[in-house]
Amino acid sequence: xxxxxxxxxxxxxxxxxxxxxxxxxxxxxxxxxxSLYRCKLKNMINGTQFERTFRAVETFEPAxxxxxxxxxxxxxxxxxxxxxxxxxxxxxLTEDQLGDAKNYMSDNLDVEILFFGEKPLGVTLPxxxxxxxxxxxxxxxxxxxxxRTKPVEVETGYALQASPFVEEGEKIRIDTRTGEYLTRxxx
Amino acid sequence: xxxxxxxxxxxxxxxxxxAMIRAIRRFFIDRDYLEVETPSRxxxxxxxxxxxxxxxxxxxxxxxxxxxxxxLLAAGYPRIFQVTKCxxxxxxxxxxxxxxxLLEWYKSGIDYRRMMEECEELIIHVARxxxxxxxxxxxxREIDIQTPWERISVKNAFKRYSPVSMKKxxxxxxxxxxxxxxxxxxxxxxxxxxxxxxxxxxxxxxxxVKKTDPQVAERFxxxxxxxxxxxxFSELTDVAEQRARFEEERKNRRESGKAPYPMPEKFLSELAxxxxxxxxxxxxxxxxxxxxxSASIDDVVTFTPEEL
Lengths: 187, 308
Known about the structure:
The complex is a heterodimer of chains A (187) and B (308). Chain A is mostly beta strands. Chain A has one helix and 16 strands. In chain A, strands 1-6-2-3-4-5 form a six-stranded antiparallel beta sheet, with no helix packed on it. A five-stranded antiparallel beta sheet of chain A has the order 9-8-7-10-11. The radius of gyration of chain A is 22 Å and the shape is elongated. By secondary structure, chain B is α+β, with helices and mostly antiparallel strands. Chain B has helices at 2-9, 11-30, 66-74, 112-129, 154-161, 166-171, 175-187, 239-255, 265-271, 284-291; strands at 34-35, 41-42, 55-56, 59-61, 79-87, 99-108, 135-138, 141-144, 150-153, 194-200, 209-210, 213-224, 227-234, 277-283.
């Protein structure tokens, strides 16, 4: 159970049976008045948002969330399939639920799947993933004068800026938190 | 390492804060105020429903120096000021920190109207000492500090900005919510600082009731750049009424399941000797936010509790 004074940005609570994440939070207390906890809440299942002001006396259920290690298998018709490698249980997430994470979904990638009860809600990625470059302009002498990066595309179809020395067929490491190129990976 | 960087980043703000406090002292010393220090640890704060004191070995850390300073007024010190750390439990946000610095000053022989003018004079003096002539830039807006500043009663602010009247808001227990979500955001838009005055009596436990309108107390809040900066009263000097108001606040605290505070008997017994006076409590950290153009109170204190 949370008290109003526990409320803060990114806290996940349960309201009317649904999990919500606090996306904006303001503590206010007008002079001689009571403490007010203003929250913008986002429904973690359907994405709808609303604002509500809570008072100090209110209490909140933590959202019944858990994470489970699963492996990415394949994508079909915007459904992304993941499998528990111990039980062989499979679940599906939509492209919307994945968000930017879809840029990093290479076969057999180990991820954490976030569940609300039995319902999968989203994916937590490792901070770094290694992906194979499928498109890169060949590097020509003199090119580097104009810029220190060039556009490349990786196996998932994600396009980003990378070092001008990166070639097709090579693996590169990407920071999934920023979406940015980090380094070439020697195999 | 991160902490060290935070402290290095605050260097300019801490210099401005120190210069600001020097200017505040200069203002009051030049006007023949006596700087006083009253104890931080006291048997109990003034009983107010929504202010929570932090317990300290059977007593409490003071939430403001109000009771002690009024006892000094009653003992014949007509002009006193104090810059002191105060403590309020459970208050944390971009404008709140449980240990904060309050400037509190009292002057006998004046009422809250005259006190508004003294607030204007103080802020203009401090601004000038810090090199601001006529205006201050805060969070991308210009605050025009030329006098007279704006003055609007709470009743009229509700008429102008709230879907319901002040009376209705109080009856439905929505006064604070409307103040925060409907009225305060509108006050950010005023170019000059603003005095919001004449609060409902229930929201001014130590303020004198207005003779011409017994629903309200002679209390004002000063807003500047959208920040609630200072609170002031024409001080209540009627002992019987003060006792009754404290009883009411203590009852409210009991009903909301909060710790009871002892009745401040010594203060009450000396209150009869207190002359007509007015006093202001001003948030020094918030004033420093304005002069350093900071978005958060964290930017103007050396350490936040989270950094300790």
